[in-house]
Write the structure tokens for this entry.
Amino acid sequence: MASLTLDSLVQEDDAAWAPLTRLAACHAQLAGLAAGPALPPLWHWLHFLDAAPAADLGADGHRRRGGMVPHDPALPARMWAGGRLRFGAPADAGARVRRETSVAGIHDRQGKSGALRFVTLRHVVSGSAGVLVEEEQDLVFRAPAAGRRAPPVAEPAPQGAAARVIVPDAVLLFRFSALTFNAHRIHYDVEYARSEEHYPGLVVQGPLQAFLLIALLREAAPDTALRRFEFRGQAPAFVDGALQLEAWEEGEIWRLQTRDAAGAVCMVAKADISKNVLF
């Protein structure tokens, strides 16, 4: 159920384990997210899905612009660039939950690749226990790129950092897109990704990388509660290439990142946890 005005979007859903079980089936690295006394962090990304009718989709597979996000035909390409989350009360499976979305800010900038529009959406997820999740989601709209700049190469993770290497394949990308009802064609239509958005291959979803990092954090810091999580995309990661997941403790926070086979950083993240409390 959803109701939309130009100022806000309110959606209701039933918190459920089933989407997390399907997520865990997508890759062994994600299996641990389907175990625990409460739904794991980022569970809400598998709920409140935008079931836009096929007639409302644009050429890229996204819902056509309009409504809360101003449309500019000169900036057709869209990506989820990052976000900041604060976790409150845990969500109980089977509970009725509500998400209210509003636009927190719109900023136009001139980047090295041309004009950019940054749109920040604010989501508040609540249930009978009060606020469950507060999130700011950063979207970037830009013109189609004629080419790609080399991404920055990250410094090696500190000695002793938790690390895993996975190779995202087309099946993983397809299943994750299906699970999130994300029809953006850069994740499953290789000809579109190459010819229209000038990528060398299918693009690994940013939210998938965030889930993988949360799973690594859960391994590295068990019996803890995630209180805050921030992430930011640095460069695209592509299908069939090695993707290294890294996490290390730095003072009172954890640093996390993904890197491609060349050592270039694809996503950076920061996590604030509380010890001796289960996720």
About this structure: The chain has one domain: 2-275.
